[in-house]
Amino acid sequence: MPADFIEAASQTDAREIINRGIAYAIIIAGFLSVAYIFFGGITFILSGGQDDKIKQAVSTIRYAIIGLVITIFAIVIVQFVGKALGINVVQYLSFSHIVNLVRDLTSGGGGDAINTLD
């Protein structure tokens, strides 16, 4: 598997690697924000009316929403800066690319993840 990764990396230019890195970072940040909103909601439901647990759950949800808003702003800023530099980062943020990447990573064929995004 490391040889496949090195071979794929040698066939890709630096702009493409940076492009995908930024896209994946934005995807992961958005996913984590949604996961923390979900976690905060579950914590709120299971709080049993205890004030400290409710405050903790509301705080988790609040910060997760702030993180989601920052992620959305990051997409806009990265797209703006990318267009100024001639890099199209947003092309990798399509839902089908994300699903293909997750499918490849979970199926154990992680080496094919780079090829499915082309």
Characteristics of this structure?
118 residues, 5 helices, 78% helix, 0% strand
Report on this structure.
This protein is mainly α. It has one domain (2-116). It contains five helices and no strands. It has helices at residues 2-10, 14-45, 51-85, 95-106, 113-116. α2 (14-45) packs antiparallel against α3.
Shape: elongated
Low-confidence parts lasting 5 or more residues at pLDDT below 50?
Answer: 110-118
Share of helix, binned = over 70%
Give the termini distance in whole angstroms: 19 Å
| Residue fraction in strands | under 5%
Strand count, sense and barrel status of the largest sheet are:
none
Any idea what the radius of gyration is?
18 Å
Write a compact overview of the structure shown.
The protein has helices spanning 2-10, 14-45, 51-85, 95-106, 113-116. The protein is an all-alpha fold and 118 residues long. It has one domain.
